[in-house]
Amino acid sequence: MIAEIQHKTGKYKIDFSKPLDISIPVDLAKQNINAWYLEDPEISPVQSGDWVGSVAQGADVNFNTIVFNPHAHITHTECVGHITKEVHSVNKNLKQFFYLAEVVTLQPALQANEDLLITKEQLQEVLGNKEREAIVIRTTPNLLDKKSKRYSNTNPPYLAENAAEYLKEKGIEHLLIDLPSVDKEKDEGKLLAHNAFWNTKGELRMSATITEFIFVANEIKDGVYFLNLMIAPFENDASPSKPILYKVEK
């Protein structure tokens, strides 16, 4: 199905029959991604007396309970409520779901303290004067182990504070990245990039979101796409999400 969409930046043609899924699921058939020092997620059939919610074990239906943390175990989308004292729900604040996005590939820059950083200068170079509502950041090396990596105590790459500030000033509403966080794993709770992107020192950007733990396959080229940012309806600061990209033609 090919549709023509009128956007403020022009007209685009989208082939909805060719979605590009950039989410990572909870998948217990293999090693699941994991961060923030938690145990692995669990999916198990409900047990009530002698009854077990598994067709393979004689039940009429499969009836599983799932235990997971969205920040640690799955692609997730979070709102400013992730870092505010006041409760804010991503389900209430994310009200639109289609956005013009730019996919970019960046190699985090090695710093003097041996941290790997995505810098403001890198983002300025790839975005230039483009008008985008979302940015999808793929970091290199882009290996399949991103779908199963154990990130706790590994000090992954992260986003510089002024880089997040730049994205805010650029009008980027939705930031998607293939890392467990936009901030340093252990930063004494400063969360500099989160705070800068959501503008916590000024008027909060209630509709802005950060999506972490994506995986952008190497076959997906850098450039402009339409993003469908789908979330599960949890009244929580973050929700499991399934971001889908669609190639566009002007």
Automatic annotation (TrEMBL):
<dbReference type="InterPro" id="IPR037175">
    <property type="entry name" value="KFase_sf"/>
</dbReference>
<dbReference type="GO" id="GO:0019441">
    <property type="term" value="P:L-tryptophan catabolic process to kynurenine"/>
</dbReference>
<protein>
    <submittedName>
        <fullName>Cyclase family protein</fullName>
    </submittedName>
</protein>
<dbReference type="InterPro" id="IPR007325">
    <property type="entry name" value="KFase/CYL"/>
</dbReference>
<dbReference type="GO" id="GO:0004061">
    <property type="term" value="F:arylformamidase activity"/>
</dbReference>
<dbReference type="Pfam" id="PF04199">
    <property type="entry name" value="Cyclase"/>
</dbReference>
